[in-house]
Amino acid sequence: MLLSIIIVNYNVKYYLEQCLCSVNKAVSGIAAEIFVVDNASTDGSLNFLQPLFTDIKFISNSTNLGFAKANNQALNLCTGKYVLFLNPDTLVPEEAISKSLSYIQEHPEAGAIGIRMIDGNGYFLPESKRAFPTPMACLYKLSGLAALFPSSGIFNKYALGNLDQHITQPVQVLAGACMMVQKKLLESLNGFDERYFMYGEDIDLSYRIVEAGYQNHYFADTTVLHFKGKSSHKESFLYVKLFYGAMLLFVKKQYTKGAGKRFSLLMQSAIAIGGIVSSFRRLFILDAGTKNKAKNRKPIWIVATAEEYTEISSLLKKLQPARKEIKRVSVDTIKENAFCTLAELPGYLSVTKGINIIFCIGTLTISQILPELERLTDKSAWFHFHIQGTKGLAGTEMLSLWND
């Protein structure tokens, strides 16, 4: 067995359906095994997914054990030479896994590699490559200076803003959302530290990989789509508690002497400030923005062939009969029975705001769609993805509740 893939699921069955379809395509021809650890989901994930993916090994937990424990649970059963930790709210391009395996095999000094990631709107995710937390880096981030100077190696040191996102290179910290690690190294490190419930465990593991004499490599030769945070609610009180609590745990664990004590005090102050700021954003900014988005919903444009359009539009009309305007965007240059072509789409979105765009994955591959998504990042639109033949939808904002 060359590769073991571990995915921890919590109440995101339709995202995971899309993810597993993409992973199955990406491991074609590779000796791979896939584990899904369900952390006591209440959305019927196992009943929905197990009949659809009979070759995947499902592990059912009666309680939510958290990210670190659930991953270690499957890690103990893995037989692959390499292990890929992957979030359920991801879409993996067809060539991503084979390229990543080739790279890590050719670079034995790389104990782990992390793949370049973009979010559901096509924007680069800075957590794809990071530095270890330092007092000043944390202060710059919380003060907003990192956001003001995103390309600075000083003010945005934590996200390594001065390093080109398109260049493969050694970095300090990789993201657990898409992280491939040598199995023998994981065994020597005993996997993730289970004191982390959610968040921070990838920073801790990255630190211990470097301590063990290996490097962490940021791999930019392929891109994974990560919707980010669909298993949790960003900016909620629970998120603040878990995220900043994980940062404090890391600081106390790794910086124990001298300046480490001052670092710990500084981090506790930063946690308090971060909690207040995040709570304010949640109460007064994010909720208002969500309400406005829901209120101003626009028509749906589906990027698909005629056959794919018929499949998904019939589902949409059944689930949302009030939707009057559903149009097709042709995937090629033939415009027959289509509103416009994919090449023309940026021009239309420049003058029409708030459109829901659905990319159908079938004739168009994920590898073909992601560059198009990055080309549309500055447009005011919401993007969604549907793999032909599936029952669900994954996107920046769910259009509806999809029935089984």
Annotation keywords:
six-stranded mixed sheet, Rossmann fold, 39% helix, single chain, 13 helices, alpha/beta, 3 domains, nine-stranded mixed sheet, Spore Coat Polysaccharide Biosynthesis Protein SpsA, Chain A, 404 residues, disordered C terminus
In short:
Helix content is 39%, strand content 21%. By secondary structure, the chain is α/β, with parallel strands linked by helices. Helix 5 runs parallel beside helix 10 (259-295).
How helical, in percent, are the residues? Answer: 25-40%
| Overall CATH architecture of the largest domain | Alpha-Beta Complex
Q: Order of helices and strands, N to C?
A: EHEHEHEEHEHHEEHHEHHEHEEHEHEE
Shape: globular
Q: What is the beta-strand fraction?
A: 15-25%
The DSSP helix count reads: 13
The SS-based structural class is alpha/beta
Structural notes for this entry:
- The C terminus is likely disordered.
- The longest helix has 37 residues.
- The chain folds into three domains: 193 residues, Spore Coat Polysaccharide Biosynthesis Protein SpsA, Chain A; 63 residues; 96 residues, Rossmann fold (3-Layer(aba) Sandwich).
- Strands 1, 2, 3, 4, 5, 6, 7, 8 and 9 form a nine-stranded mixed beta sheet that branches. A six-stranded mixed beta sheet has the order 12-11-10-13-14-15, with helices on both faces.
- It is an alpha/beta fold.
- It is globular.
